[in-house]
């Protein structure tokens, strides 16, 4: 089973789009709201060099923003 984690904030419209896309595809995922734990955001910036959300990790592969094509490609590779 693939591990998918979506890093989000409360007011991010693209975060909602990623979550809706995964839900519509019946793909289970874990959501981590970085507003609740800013230390997690610091860890994300160190890993990816990106400050924005959403950031989605698919078994170690990172996708920044709402990019359904890259998400599906990452899911097919694993």
Description of the molecule:
InterPro entries: GLR_AS, Glutaredoxin, Grx-like_ET, Thioredoxin-like_sf. This is NrdH-redoxin. It comes from Halobacillus mangrovi. GO terms for molecular function: electron transfer activity. By secondary structure, the chain is an alpha+beta fold. It has one domain: 3-Layer(aba) Sandwich (Glutaredoxin), CATH 3.40.30.10. The chain contains three helices and four strands; from the N terminus they run βαβαββα. It has helices spanning 13-24, 38-48, 68-77, and strands spanning 4-8, 30-33, 55-58, 61-64. Strands 2-1-3-4 form a four-stranded mixed β-sheet, sandwiched between helices. Helix 1 links the parallel strand 1 and strand 2 (30-33). The chain is globular and about 30 Å long.
Strand segment tally: 4
Which architecture does the CATH hierarchy give at level 2?
3-Layer(aba) Sandwich
Number of helices: 3
The CATH superfamily label reads: Glutaredoxin
How would you sum up the major sheet? Answer: 4 strands, mixed
**Low-pLDDT segments:** none
CATH top level is Alpha Beta
SS content category: alpha+beta
Number of domains: 1
CATH topology label: Glutaredoxin
Q: Could you tell me the mean pLDDT?
A: 92
Strand order of the largest sheet: 2-1-3-4
Shape: globular
Terminal CA distance: 9 Å
Output the helix-strand order.
EHEHEEH
β-strand percent reads 15-25%
The whole-angstrom Rg is 12 Å
Q: What percent of residues adopt helix (DSSP H or I)?
A: 40-55%
